[in-house]
Amino acid sequence: MTMVEWTRLSGDQVEGLTATLLCRKYPDALRIRPSSGDGGIDLLVPGSEGKSVIYQVKKFASNLSSSQKSQIEKSLRRLEEYRSEHDLMVESWHLALPIDPTNENLHWFAQITKNLSYQCDWRGLSFLDGLAAEFPDVVDYYVGNGRQRLESIIGKLTSAMGMKPSGGDGLITPAQLGGYLQELAPILDTDPHFRYEVSVGPAKSNITSEPGMIFASERSAGPDNSNAVTVRVFNKFKAALEFRPIPINVVIRAEPGSDLQRELASFTKYGTSLSAPIGTVDAKMDLPGGLGGDFTGAGLRIIAADGQATAPSRVLRMVVINPQNEIVTTAIINMQPPTFGLDHTGARITGTERNGGFRVEMRSDFSQRMTTMTISDVSVEGLAPHDAVAALNFLTAMRSPNQIAIAAPYGPVKNPIGLPDDFALPDSASLNALIEIATSLETIQEHTTVQLAMPTSISPEEAASWKMAARLLLGEQVNATTAAVHTCLNPGIPAPEGKFTIAYYSELSVTVNSTRIPLGTVLMHCPIAEVDPTSIKRHDDHIDCSIHPADNAAITARLIHPE
Predict the structure, then answer these.
(1) Of 55, 75, 86, 121, which shows the fewest CB atoms inside 10 Å?
(2) Residue among 310, 311, 256, 249 nearest 284 (CA)
(3) Model pTM above 0.85
């Protein structure tokens, strides 16, 4: 069992070690930086039903003095004030420190917490020693020699391509590299903050980002630099960069008026993603695991936080309001955390319509006191028809003289702002066509238990058939597109001559995503029809012929028996 001599550690070591152990135990924990407005919160862990579990970390490793008790009581008072002012729902509060309580301590603790509406407990030496045993790599890193050993191993790893060939053919065998990397694997896992994935293969000009990846390092080697050792680094817990920040000094050379200069300006002002090609970057980075150093003529990719988020940080409601101050339509948007520029003059926030129908981006220029909004990535493929209709109706309603407001998911809508006359959505003609198709499928969905989804591709013939079926299902009488009716006359019945009226039944069905959906029976009627003489085919027991409208008469259809 890993033992920690807590009394021999400095106060900063105790607090850093304790907080890191808690974050490893609760990877979703958020570390609150000390400030006048921190509310007496060191760590905030998501609890149940939207509530929060609060940890207050103290470095006290011997019996509590009066002053130390006062500090703990002050932290509780600050939490209560913060909870009241910010509507924070607290599930429980835990005091974490490397000392087990005495009976006197427990009595005092019960007194200061007795009037609180949430559970409070003392998590002392036994609890922290249990975490230390569960995560020995954290203890080794903070109070042992784990940091130095890890950086030494990473240094050896990045020179792996320079090892000597094991055979006489002058080549490094896959088995040789595989064995080397396998020996390194358990040591690479001793970093308490980050997880490392190592691969050897062809050098790539573009390393794909993955969820939780904070950076990747690629070191090319070989006579033609065609091979590389790639190290991908991932957070072991959300607050890892709070404990081990990454200072970076970067110089990016961008030609005036180039795409890179515009991308750099956007990154500097709004914190958007940045991709600088190889040859444009000089950098000095203090990366984890000794992967940093000085780089000349390198490339750099920085991915905005919203591109890595796995869940929305906030749900908002966007509301379109007409000139009569009436709500026209509403969309629920899953917003991602905002990004801020390096010069602190702007911010950017993005979100996605709750069903993925479109993406919203808002950029705020603090110096100009102006916010611009962009709608992009409109796609209803795979959505249920009613969800597609809702998203598309919202988009088409976003036009002057309507206004738009942003509000909480529930409650009043305040402070709408006008949409500019030149506000335009991408390809409005396609949006209108999609709305008509989605509306038809929405009507069809009400008459079938088959779950419909918006198709990837739609032919004009399919769209027309869905539209006609929807109209019939709504009780309309429609003109059919059938040009002729093929019929089989019973034995002894001759083909009709001249012009006549015809009525007959037909089964109504549509095909959506290769699935045939029966919808009922329609009555077809043509007031003036005639037989096509060239279509008459006489058989032993019947006659086949085709009947078509005459004198430009129309065939009408009406649903009489819904499925």
Answers:
(1) 86
(2) 249
(3) no
Bridge partner residues of 189 (DSSP): none
Task: Measure the CA–CA gap between 321 and 264, rounded to whole angstroms.
Answer: 36
Contacts for 525-528: CB closer than 8 Å, 24+ residues apart? 525/501, 525/555, 525/556, 525/557, 525/558, 526/501, 526/502, 526/553, 526/554, 526/555, 526/556, 527/501, 527/553, 528/499, 528/500, 528/501, 528/553
Measured over the CA atoms of residue 483, residue 488, residue 493 and residue 495, the dihedral's sign is: positive
- Residue 333 CB contacts under 8 Å (≥ 6 apart), including other chains: 315, 316, 317, 318, 351, 352, 353, 354, 360
Alpha carbon 536 to its chain centroid, in Å, reads 63
- Give the separation between CA 545 and CA 530, rounded to whole angstroms: 10
The answer, yes or no, to whether residue 105 has pLDDT greater than 70, is: yes
> 143-152, 378-387, 469-478 — which is least confidently predicted?
143-152
C-alpha distance from residue 358 to each of 211, 314, 332, 394, 409 (Å): 22, 17, 11, 10, 18
CB 392 within 8 A of CB 398: no
pLDDT in tens, 212-246: 788 887 776 655 556 677 788 888 888 888 888 87
What count of other Cβ atoms lies within 10 Å of the Cβ of residue 81?
12
E-strand stretches of 111-208: 119-123, 194-202
The 119-123 sheet, strands edge to edge: 30-31, 43-46, 52-57, 90-96, 119-123
CA neighbor of 227 nearest in space, from 162, 296, 151, 300: 162
What residues are paired with 281 via a beta bridge? 252, 298
For the cut 50, the answer to whether the pLDDT of residue 165 exceeds it is no
